[in-house]
User: What shape does this take?
Amino acid sequence: MQKGHLALWNECLRLIKQNVTEQTYKTWFEPIVFESYDEQQKTVLVQVPSAYIYEYLEQNFVRLMAWALTNSFKASVSLKYRLVTDREHKKIQEWEGDRPSDIEAPQATTRGNRAPTVLDAAVPQELNPQLNPKQTFDNFIEGDSNKLPRTVGIAIGEHPGKSTFNPFFLYGPSGCGKTHLINAIGVLTKKMYPQKRVLYVSARLFQVQFTDAVRQNTTNDFINFYQTIDVLIVDDIQEWINAPKTLDTFFHIFDHLFRLGKQIILASDRPPVDLDGVKDRLLTRFSCGLIAELEKPNVQLCVDILNSKCRRDGLKIPADVIQFIAQSANGSVRDLEGVVNQLLAFSIVYNTHVDMRLAERVIKRAVKMDDHPLTIDDIIDKVCHHFGVSQQQVFSKSRKRDYVQVRQVSMYLAQKYTKMPAARIGQLIGGRDHSTVIHSCSTVEQRLKVDRAFAEELNSIEHSFKLKQ
Assistant: This one.
């Protein structure tokens, strides 16, 4: 029977292939492996090589796949995705795709950009909390920089409004995980108390809704709606600094919720004392609960975050690449995730393994140049340009004096400005071994002591790196 279902699946792929480019089909659909079809549940189980592919398919091709499945199986069929994360220990992850009925359902407008009305407040069960279900405490990795906020967040999620942590004011630099943490609190609350009205809203959206309410003369409806929330989570409140009317309105909402014992969670890129323009009456309320700083993660926590993401998504990234990414991402969790996603995309599209050279290329594009260490490619490019030779000549086996000099200088500067071991440097500069790198560094160091013109040339190259101390 499954053999017949495989034929139906192949027909589904044929229909998809007719509606996408050849490159798109090869990249996103060809890696999918059909496993089985559940006649009773009307569900097709497929295996995907990574969570990234599952997420991309569901985000970009869900309607196309639903149409193709319906035409092939002559029924309303849904997809179930399976990822084998550890074949040796038979560990797997599974995700349910959107059902066709859900895909075609019209989107509710209750939580759109328009201002909420009193009618929205009258139908609590229809409130969309606007939470990201993927940002949970399970994948918020604990470290020294976030232990206190994470612990407090769990306590709030388990007992919203009943602890001394109300309001909970979280602050920290961009990319440190604030949005993830406050989302995780909301997700945990909804899991433990499904009946509670939980709402996540950005400060900007709140301000847009308020402006809309003023324009439509429905400000009272707007305030009434927000005063029905049990757990109110507001992100990026520093954006209200120059919005006094929005702040005054939020004060009334805050005061009402606080007196009723409702939980309030606020996130900002700075502490309350640095919110210039916010009136004292609101600042004192922000400060009466708990103020917690979320610091940028150190290198070890970045490594732990990356390893966790690799295990969760079934990725295979070498340890030295993990370490390099962690050191280069400037303590930004957002940069970490962006680099990993780009690495995976590159490896899928170009059918190549994730290695150090690919990581260097991606880091160069994903992280600001002024904020990350030089790469081997940066160094070789600068040195070759200075001495007027090509990289191909440097990587060759030629013992020509000019090429050897560039090779040695490149190895010396690579060891000075990167954290790579000698063996890795040699491998990336013409496939030499670590002893060649050590010898080259020693030769350059000795020459710098006796050759002033040579020292000035190196100084010129290093100055072009903008790393001269």
